Amino acid sequence: FPSHDSMTSKEISFILDYYRPNSEYKVGNTYESLEWYSDNKPSKEEFDLWIKEGDKIRKNFIIKNNREQAYKQESDSIFFKYQRDEASKEDWINKIKEIKERYPYEQ
Length: 107
What we know:
By secondary structure, the chain is mainly alpha-helical. 61% of the residues lie in helices and 4% in strands.
């Protein structure tokens, strides 16, 4: 999974704010250099898990956007043709399946 070093400080701050709202801290280059000013500093294990989960959330957000663009560019036109009896429902559903296979969500 991604290391703390591969994420921007903004991404790390977002993750920390999500899991520990209202905490005060300063993001460092490593867990050890994370300056925590509140009483609820996460353990290294918690922090590593949050980074892993945060990266998955970020990737799935990108995948969602990619799917939305593909639907607009590829499947919407088939849907409108289907409504006008110029394409089959199966054509439309198959295109949606193809897009989902091209951009699978991380589990």
